[in-house]
Design brief:
The protein has 330 residues and is mainly α. It is 66% helix and 0% strand. The structure holds zinc ion. Zinc ion (ZN) is lined by residues 55, 57-58, 60, 80, 82-83, 85.
C-alpha cells in the first residue's frame, strides 16, 4: 500500500533513475557553461549563437575536450592551455551552481510526474514518485514543456545576476523580451500556467452570467503576477533590499507562477538573504563582499534559490496560501 502510494504502481529500477538524474545534471551543467558565454557576450553586443569560444588573451579557440563543464577547469588546472592566463574560478562555479539548482528542479519535477504543481490540473498525479518508468510509459508533453519553462526562467535570472556581478547593464531587450514574451506565451497557450483563479476570485471578477474560460483565467493569473511582482520588487528596491533587477526578477517569477507566488517567493527571498547575511557576518566576510560590490549579485542569486525552492514545494505552499485566503475572505 505504502509502496503503491510512492511509486504509483510502477516497477522501477534505481539504476534507471540514477542514469536519468545524471543526464539531467549534466545537461544543466552544460546550460551553465552556455550562460557563461551569454554573460560575456551580451554586454559586448556580440552574437550569442555564432562563433566559437576563445581565450580572451591569446584568442586561441577553446578545444572541445577542454570545454567540458566543471571538469575542464580542473583538467587545465585553472589556466589557458596556450598562454597560461588564469581562468577565473567563477566559470566552474557558475556551471556547478546551475547544475545543482536547475538539475534539482528538473529532476524533482520530471521524476515525480509533476507532483509539485498545484492541484486542480491534469499534471499532478498525487504520487510523490513516478520515476523514469512512469515518465517513459506515459510521457506527458505538458510536464516536459512546463519543466523546460521553469528551467529557462531560472537560467534567465542567473544570467541577470552574473551581468550584475560584472557591474554591466542588462540591455533592455534582454529583460523586456523574456518578460513580455512569457506573458504572451501563457496568453496563447494557457496550459503553460498550472495555476487557476480560486473559485472565490472567479466569482468576484467575472460577473454572474458572463462566461469565463481557461484562457482568461490563465492569462489573468500571469498578468496579475507580472504587475504584483513588479510593484513588490519596486517596494523592496526602494528599501535597498534588491539589486538593480529585483523588480524585473519578481515580475518574471509572478508571470511564471502567478500572483500568489510573489508573496511566498518574496518571503523566502528575505529569509534566505538574511540567513546568508548572518552567515557572512559570522564568518566576518560580509565587509569584503560589500566592498567588492557583489551585494546586488548575491541578492539576485538569493532570488534564484528562493524561486527554485518555491517551484519544488509549489503545491504545498499554494495549498497553505489558499487556506489562508479562505480564512481571510471568510
Ligand atoms: Zn590563452
Amino acid at each position: 500500500m505504502v509502496w503503491e502510494f510512492f511509486y504509483g504502481g510502477y516497477s522501477d529500477s534505481t539504476l534507471d533513475n540514477l542514469i536519468f538524474t545524471f543526464f539531467i545534471f549534466t545537461f544543466a551543467a552544460n546550460l551553465g557553461s552556455f550562460l557563461n558565454v551569454l554573460v560575456y557576450r551580451i554586454p559586448l553586443g556580440k552574437s550569442v549563437v555564432f562563433g566559437s569560444s576563445c581565450c580572451p588573451r591569446c584568442k586561441q579557440i577553446i578545444r572541445f575536450h577542454d570545454n567540458v563543464p566543471i571538469l575542464g577547469w580542473f583538467f587545465l588546472q585553472g589556466r589557458c592551455r596556450d598562454c597560461f592566463v588564469p581562468i577565473p574560478i567563477r566559470y566552474p562555479g557558475v556551471e556547478g551552481f546551475t547544475a545543482i539548482v536547475l538539475g534539482s528542479v528538473a529532476t524533482c519535477e520530471l521524476l515525480s510526474g509533476g507532483a509539485n504543481f498545484p492541484l486542480g490540473n491534469n499534471i499532478a498525479t498525487h504520487f510523490l514518485w513516478r520515476g523514469t518508468d512512469g515518465l517513459m510509459l506515459q510521457p506527458n508533453v505538458r510536464l516536459f514543456l512546463l519543466c523546460g519553462l521553469h528551467v529557462w526562467c531560472l537560467a534567465i535570472l542567473i544570467t541577470w545576476a552574473l551581468i550584475e556581478w560584472d557591474r554591466k547593464q542588462v540591455p533592455i531587450c534582454w529583460w523586456a523580451v523574456p518578460l513580455l514574451g512569457l506573458l504572451c506565451l501563457i496568453g496563447c497557450f494557457p496550459w503553460l500556467q498550472p495555476l487557476e483563479l480560486g473559485p472565490n476570485l472567479k466569482k468576484m471578477i467575472f460577473a454572474e452570467g458572463i462566461s469565463w474560460n481557461y484562457w482568461k483565467t490563465s492569462g489573468l493569473v500571469s498578468l496579475c503576477g507580472l504587475v504584483v511582482g513588479w510593484c513588490v520588487g519596486l517596494t523592496l528596491k526602494s528599501l535597498g533590499k534588491t539589486g538593480t533587477y529585483g523588480p524585473q526578477g519578481l515580475a518574471l517569477v509572478g508571470t511564471l507562477c502567478g500572483w500568489s507566488a510573489v508573496g511566498s517567493v518574496s518571503c523566502l527571498w528575505v529569509i534566505i538573504a538574511s540567513m546568508r547575511h548572518a552567515l557572512a557576518r559570522f564568518l566576518s566576510i560580509g565587509e569584503i563582499r560589500i566592498r567588492n560590490g557583489a551585494l546586488p549579485f548575491l541578492l539576485l542569486i538569493d532570488l534564484v534559490i528562493a524561486t527554485a525552492i518555491f517551484i519544488v514545494c509549489w503545491q504545498w505552499i499554494d495549498r497553505y496560501f489558499e487556506s489562508m485566503t479562505r480564512f481571510l475572505l471568510r
